[in-house]
Structure formats: C-alpha cells, structure tokens
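hey so i finally got around to running both of the ones u sent me last week. sorry it took forever, my laptop kept dying halfway thru and i had to restart like 3 times lol. anyway pasting them below in the order u listed, first the sequence line then the structure token line for each. didnt double check formatting much so if smth looks off just lmk and ill redo it

first one:
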Amino acid sequence: MRRRLLIQVLAVVALPLFAAPAFTAGEGGGGGDGGSTKCKKGEVWDKKLKKCVAPKYGMLDDNNIYEAGHDLAMAGRYDEAIAVLSLAANKQDPRILNYLGYSHRHSGRVTVGLGYYEEALRINPDYTLVREYLGEAHLQIGDLAGAQEQLAEIEKRTGKGSREYGMLAEQIYHFMRS
C-alpha cells in the first residue's frame, strides 16, 4: 500500500518536474550533440538508457529529488515539496532535512520544521543555511535569543560576510524593530 502511494505521489506531483527538463534545449541527453531530447507527456529522460521512458518508482536519485524539492519549496509549493522530499532514500541527508524543515515551517508547522532543522544540524553542525533557517524559525515563534544564538554560530563558522549571516542578521533587525 505504501509503495503504491509513493508511486502515485511521484506520478502526480513529481512527474511534471522531471519531465520538464527533457523539453529544455541541451538538457536530458541527446548524445552530447547539444540538441534537445523531447519526451512525450508522461515520460521522463533516463540518463542511463539515453531515451524517454515511463517513470518507475526508485528511478530518481536523491540529488534529483533534492533539486525538485528545493525548487518546489522556493516556489512556495510547500506541501508538494514535502511529498517529493519524502521520497528520498537517504533520510539522513542534511539537505533533504533542511528543505523538509523549510517547507513545514512555511506551511505553518514551525515545530515540525524545528525538528528537521535540529536533525540536519546533528548530522552536519557546520551547515550554515540550516542555521539561518533555524534562526528564522526561532523568530517566528518569538524566540529572539534562539535566533541570535544561530547568528553567533554562523559568524563562528563563516564570519559576518556570508550570505547566511547577512540574511539572518537582517531578519533579526526587522524583528527587533517591530
């Protein structure tokens, strides 16, 4: 039952994401000639077979799942991102955990998001993007001290010049002014 549900989620939610690159010039193979490969609707480009095929459970690697989940999350399609990211084989990939946290947080499930962020940091304490998002989550629940703690951790790892430091510092500044 669970396997069938995953296949359905992949077919309904993720298929358009993975089929789309096959329609882009220079993407999806084509024998290295720089041309485009066009798959029919409902098919995806299989890099190994170098042809269009019907999607099958397990044919997408975690990097593709991460990229699709990331893109969905950045597009504000949080529930779809969660569905796609949940298909990852490696449930301990900090990148996957980070965007599961991000998507849950932006869907209003801040506490669930916090759990994913904490797990990602348990695996990779130097992942400063997680720390930025974790700091933002702390601000969402009114925990200024928690956000400032994450800002200090980012500074310790990358200095004040990093993108993550600047983004969280700006969020803290706005929080304190409101």
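and the second one:
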Amino acid sequence: MRFAHKTGTQYARTCDMGVATVAANGRRIVIAACTRGELSRARSEAALRAVGKAVTESGVFQITAAT
C-alpha cells in the first residue's frame, strides 16, 4: 500500500490528507483528518495515528473477490 499525503499545521490545528492506494488491485481511498483546538502537536499526531489505525481496522483495505 502507498499513502501519498500532505500534512499541514496552523495555530491549534493539525491535518493530514491523502490518497491510499492498495498495490494489489489499484483501489484508491481518500482519507482526510484534522484536529482542532489542541495545542500539543504530539497529542494531535497521536489522534491522527488513531484515525489511521481505525481506518485500517475497518477493513476498507481488504482485498475481496468483489474489489
């Protein structure tokens, strides 16, 4: 899998947006997530990692006969 992405930060806002491409079948999934109001970049980055983990665990990247 490849994740082509762009991060961005502003005052009390951290974002990561991109396109995940599943190598086995070329399927693409757009993912966009931002935090707002958090002054700690480390906590914002942890929240974005949690989003990535949740997306992965959702099964959206699973290769099935229908994809």
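quick thing i noticed on the 2nd:
The first strand starts at residue 2 and ends at 10.
anyway thats it, ttyl
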